[in-house]
Amino acid sequence: MSNYLHGYSKEEQDRLLHQAEMTENTIYQSIDFSDAKHVLEVGSGVGAQTEILLRRYPKLNLTCVDLNESQIEVAKEYLKGRPHCHGRYDIKKMNAEHLDFDTQFDGAFLCWVLEHVPEPKKILSEVRRVLKPGSQIYITEVMNSSFFLDPYSPHVWKYWMAFNDFQLEQAGDPFVGAKLGNLLLSQGYKNIYTKVKNWHFDNRKPQHRTKFLSYWKDLLLSASDILVKNNCVTEEDVRMVSKELNEVGRNPDAVFSYSFMQAQAEV
Ligand SMILES: C[S@@+](CC[C@H](N)C(=O)[O-])C[C@H]1O[C@@H](n2cnc3c(N)ncnc32)[C@H](O)[C@@H]1O
Questions:
Q1: Which residues pair with 259 in a beta bridge?
Q2: Ligand 1, residues 2, 52, 63, 66: which to mutate, most atoms within 8 A of Cβ?
Q3: pLDDT truncated to tens, each residue of the chain (267 aa)?
């Protein structure tokens, strides 16, 4: 994960917390852990979703795993300051391709993780092994081909292509959302449901549009250092991306649209 697209900087860790807050309503509309007691969270990052899960499901306990030590440290600090989380979670440094658990969980939650892994099947197979029969897994994932912006912004478009190409080169998958049904089926999950969720903002919700454009700019630029370092884009491209996104933000008729995928399945 040395070439992890978003990196592990303080700005990125703050961005993950902001992202979870911005996207909470859309993501959690389709998630229900009200009958679960002990859930596995894979790729828990800085604890942004951990906090939301523990707040929304007061009877829940979580075991969280993440590859990266610095994300785990930030998560522990963040959750320490949230009294409703105290005593209800355990965070372990672990690669989800090899889970050091027996069959013990009655639910699993993955959000924006499989896009970064070389072998999503391996992780889904491991998660299935540690879930008790009848448990539900919920997965939220990107589908980056769905991004649309008006007015047309050529540098943003070029940058977005470079962003996705880089993720593919690093053995990640910026389109993995569309494949969740196949991936779950291949690992023996049953009762698989997928849903496309869309953020579409135009003149009907100008304030939401402004907030989302700002969030999106942060998301795109979180990869700028690594993309420049790897000669995928130039400093000038990055400057133009910022300029175009600011122009879209000021345009009274701007349109932003992006869709992602959620899957639910049973063991
Ligand atoms: C984009 S972050 C998402 C964090 C969190 N799920 C959220 O929505 O805020 C992806 C996280 O997955 C972790 N990760 C990537 N591959 C992993 C693996 N094989 N096993 C465990 N964690 C992994 C990364 O270290 C990173 O913290």
A1: 198
A2: 66
A3: 557 777 778 887 888 888 899 899 999 999 999 999 999 999 999 999 999 999 999 999 999 999 999 999 999 999 999 999 999 999 999 999 999 999 999 999 999 999 999 999 999 999 999 999 999 999 999 999 999 999 999 999 999 999 999 999 999 999 999 999 999 999 999 999 999 999 999 999 999 999 999 999 999 999 999 999 999 999 999 999 999 999 999 999 999 999 999 999 999
User: Ligand 1 center to residue 208 CA distance, Å?
Assistant: 27
User: Which of 67, 97, 130, 138 best tests ligand 1's pocket when mutated (most atoms within 8 Å of CB)?
Assistant: 67
Q: Does 3.40.140.100 match the CATH number of domain 10-266?
A: no
Q: Cα 263 to chain center, whole Å? A: 13
Question: Is there a contact between 176 and 43 (Cβ–Cβ < 8 Å)?
Answer: no
Q: How far is the CA of 114 from the centre of ligand 1 (A)?
A: 8
* Residue of 2, 49, 116 to mutate, ligand 1, most atoms within 8 A of C-beta: 116
Whether the Cβ atoms of residue 5 and residue 167 lie closer than 8 Å to each other: yes
Q: Closest ligand 1 atom, CA of 96? A: 20
Tokens matching residue 214: 């700002």
178 neighbors 210 (Cβ within 8 angstroms): no
User: How far is the centre of ligand 1, averaged over its atoms, from the C-alpha of 43 (Å)?
Assistant: 3
CA distance 177 to 21: 21
